[in-house]
Structures are given as structure tokens and as C-alpha cells.
Design goal:
Blueprint lengths: L3 H21 L17 H13 L16 H15 L20 H13 L4
Helix pairs in contact: 2-4, 3-4
């Protein structure tokens, strides 16, 4: 059997290592938010772009694709949306599909990226 002093030392060292590990574990941050940067919101900034560029395919009435007509749906699919609008126009997965709508400008694409980076305000 181990002497009592050695047992206590092992317990103290184990607890110390555990606490050190907890202290060093941090949630990864993709990018710091600039406090001077205007906040991008779904309602004010993204919804008008979505309505202009994603109807009728992704909005009710005539839409038969994945619905993207709400804040929740856009938030859920934001990474895929960004990926698809950044593809080359001749790629089969490019959106808006086959130029049914005007392509998003680089500034509009940056709005989507900023919205994601800032935490996706409604």
C-alpha cells in the first residue's frame, strides 16, 4: 500500500492538472467582431437580398426547393448559402440557379459573411 502522504500528493497533483486543463480550454472564436463595424441583421440587410435573389424557388407559393424565407431557415443554411453564391456561375450548384435572378454582388456576399461572423442577428 502507498503511504498516506504519497496518496495525498497524487490527489493534489491530479486536481491541479485538472484545473490547469480547464483553465486552458477555451471556446474557439472564428474572428473577433470589430466594435466599430455596423451590425448586420437578417431583417434589415439580408432579407431584401433573399427576397430579390431567391424567389420564387426558395419562397412559398411557387417554391419547391428548400425554403429560405425565414430568419431561422437562413440561419440554419447560412454556410451553404455562402458556399453556393461564391461558386463559379457555370457550376451546377451555383445560386441563383442558371441566372434566373441577378447574381449577388461581392458586397452582398460580404454582408452574409459578416452576419455569420457577428453571430446572426435577427
Amino acid at each position: 500500500m502507498m503511504p498516506t502522504l504519497l496518496k495525498h500528493a497524487l490527489i493534489v497533483v491530479s486536481i491541479g492538472l485538472l484545473l490547469l486543463q480547464c483553465k486552458s480550454a477555451k471556446t474557439p472564436v472564428t474572428e473577433a467582431v470589430n466594435p466599430d463595424e455596423p451590425v448586420v441583421s437578417y431583417e434589415k440587410d439580408l432579407k431584401p437580398i433573399m427576397v430579390r435573389s431567391c424567389t420564387p424557388c426558395h419562397f412559398p407559393d411557387k417554391g419547391r426547393k428548400e425554403m429560405l424565407d425565414t430568419y431561422a431557415a437562413t440561419k440554419q443554411h447560412i454556410k451553404a448559402i455562402i458556399a453556393r453564391v461564391e461558386l463559379a456561375p457555370d457550376d451546377v450548384k451555383y445560386m441563383p440557379f442558371k441566372s434566373k435572378r441577378e447574381a449577388l454582388t461581392q458586397e452582398e456576399i460580404e454582408l452574409f459573411k459578416t452576419w455569420l461572423r457577428q453571430g446572426m442577428a435577427e
